[in-house]
């Protein structure tokens, strides 16, 4: 009887340990999910910033070309 009771306690302890390990694994998985979501959000923000920067560079190039043409016209007038 004593051995049977000790065996059941051992099984109970093992089950409890598995339960705790599963909870820790679940928590770790949730944290990894949140971290991945944050990385994806950062990548999206970088993509948006790159697009804005590219548009700004295009506008600057266009403005520079217009300024160059205007300067050439002014040279011809003088």
TrEMBL record:
**Gene3D superfamilies this protein is in?**
Methyl-accepting chemotaxis protein
Q: What is this protein called?
A: Methyl-accepting chemotaxis protein
Name its species. Roseofilum reptotaenium AO1-A
């Amino acid at each position: 009887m004593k051995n049977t009771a000790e065996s059941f306690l051992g099984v109970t302890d093992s089950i409890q340990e598995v339960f705790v390990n599963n909870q820790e694994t679940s928590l770790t998985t949730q944290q990894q999910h949140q971290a991945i979501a944050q990385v994806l959000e950062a990548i999206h923000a970088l993509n948006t910033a790159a697009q804005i920067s590219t548009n700004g560079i295009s506008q600057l190039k266009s403005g520079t070309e217009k300024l160059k043409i205007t300067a050439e016209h002014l040279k011809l007038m003088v």
